[in-house]
Here is the input.
Amino acid sequence: MPRRLTDNLLNLIVRMSPSEKRLFRLYATKKAVKNELLFLNLFDFLEKKKEYNEEKILKKLPSIKKEQLPNLKSNLYKQLLNSLRQQKKTNHTSIMIREQIDYALILHSKGLYNGALDILEKAKRMALDSERSLSMLAALEIEKHIEGLYITGSMYPKAKVLKNQTNTALRQVSVNHKLSNLSLSLYGLYLQYGYVKDDRDFDFITDYFKNNLPDVNPDSLDFYGKIYLYQSHVWYYNMIQDFANNYKYAQRWVDLYIESPEWQKRELTLYIKGLHNVLNSLFMAQRYDKFAPMYEELLRLGDAQIGNMNRDQRSTFKLIEYTHGINQFFLTGNFIGGSQYVHQISEAIAKNEFDWDLNRIILFNYKIASIYFCHGDLNNTISHLHTITNQVYPDFREDIQCFARILNLIAHFDLGNESLVAHQVRSTFRYLSKIEHLQPALKSILAFVRKIPRISEEDLKNEFRKLKKELIHIEQTQFERRPFLYLDIISWLESKIEDVPVGEVIARKAKHNLSKNMSMPNVA
Here is the structure.
């Protein structure tokens, strides 16, 4: 077995719950004859040791010969998947539909055509109830094959029904395919480039969105079609920083689950992600008055469902719980609580407990560093920023990589590391000079930091005031608000001008912002 497949086998065993392992042993014991239990012995060894060491396996299990190992590993992997498939099929409608289709094929091979058709009818009902158009097509293709080749007594009245069912499923699959491609492509563009930075970016993303968005009536779409449609709008409005429309379509996404609560169980991960996007839009709009109750709703969902969640769902839930757990501290300015809260996130990242992707880990490290910075813990700030700045990730979250390098410079400046600041300025400038479209805010900040060594102590506050005025002007420009949400440089400048901690300035603004929002109309 190739190394990658060996790793997959070991990883699968490690991820199995105690209950899944117990049921697998029962499954394997009932299924295998005595000389076939070698794969179960191998399972017991790998489950206990949590590592694959061929020499130790052969020494500990003398009944296994070296030449048998490749086949044993392959067989064990297959048996594990078969066992898990049986255990999990009631939780996955697609598996149950495919099982019915498999039964129909077996009956068909035995010449039991009417029995096969009866089972295919059941598979189609399941596909229709769960809005699985591709599964419906798979069942229809086999049904048409049987009806077309054999006299079943139902072909004449059935032909028109099968034609209409096939055409309906094909239309649904086609539009869902276009919408899911658009959603995925927009998310890929976001991961590569981040948010729109100028008119050229805006025109490119808008043209791409409009040219690839199918002309559809949302009411004609099935559940998945509506999800893909709303996802596409969420990604688009998020990238162009239209927070009101971002909120509107994220809320429509969540409303699908409120209108049809049965989908919360069927597609829990998508529901959690919908809540995430509502919370994200409210955070971007700085609407803590609406953010707080929605975050409580997310936590209530976790309390109610965490025991029933599979690993993927738990991973997604914890990702979103932690993301907005951090965000609430930026909205309230409570950085003492924030610095205590992020410890558990750092531990989860270090343990690789949830297998979060690189995008999530980079963003978490930046947000954790920002919490520590606002709390005044500059050493921890720099430590977390180094996980980003010590590497270059080509074509990946350039925005975060830029902000991390700027914040690193500021942290070293606050620590009084003059020699390090001079070095960091040069390396940061080299990195930023490679960015094709560097935002005006970053240009101004970098230009200021580069001349810090030449500014006298008595002139420093005046220079802070000049930069603040320049940045306030830039902040009013379209597409330039986003950098200030990632890096609240204006609050840092005010803290230097007033000789108070930056966290105190942000907390004061958060209190004012909450008071203002409470008096605003009920819109994002």
Summary: Residues 94-153 form one domain. DSSP finds 26 helices and no strands in the chain. The radius of gyration is 29 Å. Residues 155-193 form the longest helix (39 residues).
